[in-house]
Amino acid sequence: MPLGRSAAMSRKRRTSSASTFQRVIVITFKFLLSPLVILADSFRRKGTLDRTWLFAFFLFITVVMSITGIGILVSEEPMIKTMKMMTSVTENQEILSGDLQPIIRLINKNALENNMDPNLVFAVIKSESNFSPTAVSAKGARGLMQIMPEVWQEYSGSSICSGRHSNKIICRFGECIYSPEANIRVGVKYLKDLLNRYQGRVDLALEAYNAGISNVRPGSEPKYKETKGYVKKTLGLWQSLRREAIGQQLEASLYIQRGLKYLFGLSFLCWLILFWWAHFKLFGK
Questions:
Q1: Would you identify the CATH topology of the domain 84-249?
Q2: Each residue of 48-76: pLDDT tens digit?
Q3: What's the whole-model pTM score?
């Protein structure tokens, strides 16, 4: 008896699953064909249309208009710069180790919070540390953005990390100069202050970032040969990234605009069908 009951319940579940699947197929079928059915029904003089077809048609119009509205909002919003392609930027054939996606997300987040171009931050990190979180320069700069301990102490707030430990291990408590998140946040804030100091002059801001504010001489070439090469390399990489990012944004925008034209045309056609159907059903007799 229990075996018979179990078999019956199993058949019932299979029947219920099949019924649900069939229901989904029918709803999808009606949803997609509803514009054609409503259009054909407008020419029919006798008989009444199943209300589910009308409901499916209204649902179809609603979905199309919703997608169109979302598309308009997306196309009008300023696009966040696409950073994915930057992982393949290896002009000097250097191989970047590890997964850069978490770092790229941090770059986007902090750059946009400080109203900066993420491409510039990426270029600075590439030139400074080649994306090594534990990099330490001969002068004592540390981390992804090669922050000097003095700058770290000024911008890191109440962090107990002095920024001077050389064991390259992230501090267990509080923020640490070797932490990618903290290092990028401090570096971006410092770079933003330098840009404000030099009235948006990226070349002078990079020169100060690399050689120190006291060594910047506006109107003259960088004081050090190393700094001159650094500024040239970073500006070149930044401009290259900007061109590629802008090209990708324009291409994406064109695809969105083209899709919106088709969606708008489909919405307009659906409303014409609805008015045509209403006209014949209400005034056609």
A1: Lysozyme (1.10.530)
A2: 777 888 888 888 888 888 887 777 666 65
A3: 0.58
